[in-house]
Amino acid sequence: MIFFFYPTIVSRLNGENSLNGSSLIDYAHIEQWIDFATLEIDANMLRWFAPRMGFAPFSAPAEEAAIAGLNRGLDALNTHLASNTYLVGHSVTLADIVTICNLNLGFATVMTKSFTSAFPHVERYFWTMVNQPNFKKVIGDAKQTEAVPPVPSKKAAQPAKPKEEPKKAAPVAEAPKPVAEEEEAPKPKAKNPLDLLPPSPMVLDEWKRLYSNTKSNFREVAIKGFWDMYDPEGYSLWFCDYKYNDENTVSFVTLNKVGGFLQRMDLARKYAFGKMLICGSEGPFKVKGLWLFRGPEIPKFIMDEVYDMELYEWTKVDISDEAQKERVSQMIEDAEPFEGEALLDAKCFK
Fold it and tell me: Kindly report the CA angle at 50 between 44 and 51, in degrees rounded to 5?
């Protein structure tokens, strides 16, 4: 059996250890940065790296989401390092060790110079750290990749097997073969109930393309196009509000929470479009969403499979109410300020 020890627990076994900071406040900040490095940098970097190396199935939308998440994490790290040499305090701590180890894999595999040049303070921090003697003892000479690995081909070439000469055997009297029972034909896979609904004039993929391709005059092009396409008989619109906004005191934790929700919604990609807004310039942040679902209600399989759904209050949009209709339009276009508050971030599920 393999046991995994959390680094701060292991380091505290040595009694007084400067790697844990000089106070309980420092220790708490170190824990936060370790979580940040794991969830915002390492997780997104691995989602980019692993499929490129053939360790997981490749999906272009999933890669785009991973790169966007990694960009967001590195941008936050870059902002902090603009005025700090180390993550916590004035010397190396466990937060730096964990973060540098995570960054090292990214620099060595997928994070090219053209990618990291957008984060100059992260670059300065990384190269300063990896060239310190204690880091070099473990990491060795760190190098930055010159190119992102290509997407592996779906079918790897198989080496030709040498032909085996058939062995001659003495003829043997064949035993009578029992009458084989007819094999049951495989049962057809059950269709999703949403696929059995009457056809809708609204084609979800066409709306998603319009949303993605509209770069200017968004209100006049994309929003107008949405209402022209919208079919209230075949689709329904829903507002959602997070029930526990008072817990959303840390920005990156709140962003990660919403990002996890969208990942778990992947099973609904064929039947849904969503916008999630994280509102406020400081904590506690408010999380509000707008979702378009196929059918008149929230699909049951989503309610059953995605546990996050219970963490939100869901309200069906009444499009005959002009105020609600305008709120839908504002959420689609990431209007800021939204309901009097700045947007920390806006995420799209499409």
Answer: 105
Of residues 170 and 342, more confidence is placed in 342
Pair of tokens at residue 48:
């980019």
Spatial separation of the C-alpha atoms in residues 50 and 55, rounded to whole Å? 5
Convert the pLDDT of each residue in 106-140 to its tens digit: 999 999 998 898 899 999 999 999 988 888 888 88
Domains defined along the chain, listed by start:
1-139 (1.20.1050.10), 195-349 (3.30.70.1010)
- Tell which residue, 302, 297, 287, 299, has the closest CA to residue 317: 297
d(CA 174, CA 260): 62
Q: Is 39 helix (H, G, I), strand (E, B) or coil?
A: helix
CB count within 10 Å of CB 35 equals 16
Taking the mean position of all CA atoms in its chain, how far away is CA 169?
Answer: 60
Give DSSP secondary structure letters for 79-143. Answer: HHHTS-SSSSTTS--HHHHHHHHHHHHHHHHT--HHHHTT-HHHHHHHHHHHTSHHHHHHH-S--
Residue 155 C-alpha from the chain's centroid: 27
pLDDT tens-digit map of 10-53: 555 455 566 777 788 888 888 889 999 999 999 999 999 999 88
- Virtual torsion, Cα 232, 235, 236, 239, nearest 10 deg: -120
**Residue-averaged pLDDT of the chain:** 86
Does pTM top 0.70 for this prediction? no
pLDDT tens digits along 55-64: 889 888 888 8
